[in-house]
């Protein structure tokens, strides 16, 4: 049982929604549940942060496809508040594989909603114009962003792929009859050169055009109204202007994110001042533009630093009045003994992770009450 402080209890007291929402998202026709979630994420970010884990419910360290299980829950007693899934299986595969992927993810998304948790979606999008996957490989990859934009050779194919995503968004209907809200994070880490949509292979103009079309087509043509749209580069920025270099505009983004492993211990190297500075940039942008901000990916592979959770991550998140709705660490591989980012039972950082969990600043799934139904009220 998690120790709940007065501060946390105050956060989770709720009232029925009255008046107008303080922060507007880009989809004016968003479902009621999506709008409420958006507002609550903003409120939470002022004094707390949600913890997230990629693929938390699909598999973990040494296990796969076990009902209501996660490594985070095995250690703390609670699932993460934010569960990451991926639309990577929605294209570039056989129809049978795609339908199988949809079935698995649909149950995952609905179950998370019905427990009170939140789903965020990354998209490791297989290159639609070549035999390559989502990584750039000179031998097979093509610079496809220019090909999938309007009037491009693969534009109609791209529209069909987006229809697959829209069909899934329309299918995740819970027992209460409501469509489940999801945070959708396309074309992540676009400032790097490891994905085919990366900066090295895509002009600024093409990137912005494809982003704007993607949002407009899903929202306005295909009628998807349960998405919150997240914009998340990697770390190749040191100022607000650099962060916004490929920004598609306020009408096409709900959430400012960042994926940052390098400043937080990758290859045993730390530059926490730089990491905090970047988090402060996106936090300030979100405050100024009345949008959300989140630490959309981070983590330390294998977590060899036994106090990484409290001495590195938590201390960094608490600096500079940074306001982030959630922090998400990457996945725990099924087979690899070293590729994991959240602790499992007996792992060297597990005890510190429990301290991280017990800190009043962090919120996990068990801490969330009616996040889709009522507006959180801070006392």
From TrEMBL:
Predominant cellular place of this UniProt entry's protein: secreted
Swiss-Prot/TrEMBL catalytic activity: Random hydrolysis of (1->4)-beta-D-mannosidic linkages in mannans, galactomannans and glucomannans
Keyword presence, Hydrolase: yes
Binding, substrate: 124, 194, 261
Enzyme's top EC category: hydrolase
Domain GH26 residues, every copy: 32-366
Active-site residues annotated for this sequence: 189, 297
Domain of life: Bacteria
Alphabetical list of InterPro entries matching this protein: GH, GH26_dom, Glyco_hydro_26, MANB/E
Family: Belongs to the glycosyl hydrolase 26 family.
UniProt protein name: Mannan endo-1,4-beta-mannosidase
């Amino acid at each position: 049982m998690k120790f709940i402080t007065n501060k946390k209890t105050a956060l989770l007291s709720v009232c029925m929604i009255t008046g107008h929402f303080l922060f507007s998202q880009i989809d004016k026709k968003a479902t009621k549940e999506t709008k409420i979630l958006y507002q609550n994420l903003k409120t939470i970010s002022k004094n707390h942060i949600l913890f997230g884990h990629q693929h938390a419910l699909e598999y973990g360290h040494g296990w796969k496809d076990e009902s209501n299980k996660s490594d985070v829950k095995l250690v703390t007693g609670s699932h993460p508040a934010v569960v990451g899934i991926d639309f990577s299986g929605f294209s570039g595969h056989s129809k049978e594989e795609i339908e199988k992927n949809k079935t698995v993810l649909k149950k995952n998304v609905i179950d998370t909603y019905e427990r009170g948790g939140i789903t965020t979606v990354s998209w490791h999008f297989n290159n639609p114009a070549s035999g390559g996957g989502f990584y750039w490989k000179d031998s097979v990859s093509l610079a496809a962003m220019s090909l999938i934009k309007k009037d491009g050779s693969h534009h109609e194919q791209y529209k069909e792929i987006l229809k697959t995503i829209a069909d899934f968004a329309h299918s995740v209907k819970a027992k209460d009859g409501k469509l489940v809200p999801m945070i959708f994070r396309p074309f992540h880490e676009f400032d790097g050169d490891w994905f085919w949509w990366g900066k090295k292979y895509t002009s600024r103009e093409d990137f912005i055009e494809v982003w704007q079309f993607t949002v407009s087509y899903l929202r306005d043509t295909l009628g998807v109204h349960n998405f919150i749209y997240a914009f998340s580069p990697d770390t190749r920025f040191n100022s607000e202007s650099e962060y916004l270099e490929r920004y598609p505009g306020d009408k096409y983004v709900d959430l400012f994110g960042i994926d940052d492993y390098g400043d937080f211990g990758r290859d045993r190297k730390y530059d926490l001042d730089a990491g905090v500075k970047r988090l402060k940039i996106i936090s300030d942008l979100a405050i100024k533009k009345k949008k959300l901000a989140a630490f959309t990916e981070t983590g330390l592979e294998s977590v060899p630093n036994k106090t990484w959770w409290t001495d590195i991550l938590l201390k960094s998140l608490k600096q500079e009045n940074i306001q982030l709705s959630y922090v998400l660490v990457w996945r725990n591989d099924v087979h690899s003994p070293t590729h994991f980012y959240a602790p499992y039972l007996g792992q060297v950082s597990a005890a510190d992770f429990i301290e991280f969990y017990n800190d009043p600043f962090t919120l996990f799934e068990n801490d969330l009450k009616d996040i889709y139904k009522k507006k959180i009220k801070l006392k």
